[in-house]
């Protein structure tokens, strides 16, 4: 696997990786080394709020203790950590120079929430086609902070870095990008912004880090969510956008952190998606394995199953419990089959729920996105099997039957029995 430096800011970690392949320079994943390198590369010293440090320490500890990383895995861990630290340094410089950024409003975002692989990406992308809504693009999520002092605050450089990064990743993780393709200017989930505080779920899909997973399940992520909101304000401020423009968000992680989400966005409109767990779990295990297997030389299918089957169950249970305390007018349920059958009707329901008019321009934009996605087969071709990960339909059903029954989620491979019919 040949990795070539694509930008000034990535060249050092790429050189570290190439050197480590030859046994020359070990990749240092210590907190002190990472902070020193980020400060050296940016020329900045102040991180501002340091509430992210416990999360970073939990991850770094688990990477060393649990992950059994190969040299490329250590390179990836360092590269991603440095990216977050550099962006925090740049973002703090913006917040110090322009304290008014944090005073901006983020009114009533529409938030798509559901299990991984339950159609959230399709729904989010279609709604992102509505020009009245503000969505996060991948390059903004990975490089959210303007670089003061650079031409146009480094916007072109930030975009090009992410474009080249994603192009490289598509070649390294072809199976993952078949399941969830990414391009720099495509809509992406705000998990990328939570990653800037080391409290997004990304590490769980990149490495075997059970120690970090236990921290992740129990940690109060309020500071990370507040910083995510600050970055959203920073992004829209840097684009000179009106602060009353509503955001369309989506992230499966919100199922675990629903209370925190509503503490930060108390007027959010929540769109909950549902799909057959036999499909969502199998697809999730496959997607996460495609990443993890590149970062270790040890067998990892069983490890991926143990973490992610538990994640799917924990997220569903916690979300169901927390939803009982949310006003009915603030939440709506959408089934995967309904979107497949008549997406226009579903979108009309969502827009009525969100107190927005489903205008013809938005409908045409969504239809155009869907036509292009279908013609390019952007989201097709991902094949997976529960048995590949040492689990079965019976086990998944047993662990997630409570969600299937609560939300009347049908089996996708069985005919739907209408009232009065017999199976």
Q: Based on Cα principal axes, name the global outline.
A: globular
Low-confidence stretches: 1-14, 416-423
The assigned structural class equals mainly alpha
Number of domains: 1
Strand content: under 5%
Beginning-to-end CA distance, first to last residue: 52 Å
Q: Compute the gyration radius: what is it?
A: 21 Å
Write up this protein.
The protein has a single domain (8-406), classed as Rossmann fold. The protein is built from 19 helices and four strands. It has helices at 8-21, 31-42, 53-65, 71-97, 120-128, 138-142, 155-172, 174-179, 191-194, 202-206, 210-218, 222-238, 258-264, 277-292, 301-323, 336-341, 343-353, 360-375, 393-406, and strands at residues 110-113, 248-250, 269-274, 331-335. The protein has 423 residues and is mostly helical. The radius of gyration is 21 Å and the shape is globular. The protein starts with 7 loop residues before the first helix and ends in a 17-residue tail after the last helix. Helices cover 55% and strands 4% of the residues. The longest helix has 27 residues, at 71-97. It has a four-stranded parallel β-sheet with strand order 2-1-3-4.
Protein topology:
Layout: H1 8-21, H2 31-42, H3 53-65, H4 71-97, E1 110-113, H5 120-128, H6 138-142, H7 155-172, H8 174-179, H9 191-194, H10 202-206, H11 210-218, H12 222-238, E2 248-250, H13 258-264, E3 269-274, H14 277-292, H15 301-323, E4 331-335, H16 336-341, H17 343-353, H18 360-375, H19 393-406
Helix pairs in contact: 1-4, 2-4, 3-11, 5-18, 12-13, 14-15, 15-19
